[in-house]
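Why does residue order matter? Because the sequence determines the fold. Keep that principle in mind as you read this record.
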Amino acid sequence: SASASASASARAAAPPLPPPVTTGGAGGGGRPGWWDAVEVPAGKTKHLPAETVNVADGSNWTTTQWRGGKGGGLVGAVMLETGDGTHCTMCFIDCVPPGKTPKDALRVLRGWVASTGTTDVDVRSALTGMWGKNSARVDPASQLGRLVMGCWDFLEGLGEGWHADRERVPHIEVMKRG
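Structure:
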């Protein structure tokens, strides 16, 4: 319908993001107060993300893919490297359209982020606590959180059949093996 395509193009043309709001953590060394209180699972090491990351630098973006979607379809993720071996999942894709790969998603999402004029994004100050055993939750109202959810909306708004897994809240994977 005409209204559906109008709303898709409105979502695709998301407004630019406001400048970041920086807040210092309560922990030492710029760590959030809850950081040291969280138990590290056996065999893992917890890494503190960088204070900021430049989303305009293409070398900070990565992707992964595997088979496992509905009917063995392709699924994957577009990730932003956030320092010291950590990464923020910008979009976990649980449905990749036929003929496309997560690398296509990475390309269009980087283009959308660039269109917002965003460069350096506050990472560490966006963290609000642990999410599960491996990840730190990103405040959805933070600049990074709004970029993540903007990626979901933009990718789905293309109308190509992409589907973002919105159950996986904005987060940064901070636990690594070894």
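The chain is about 20% helix and 30% strand.
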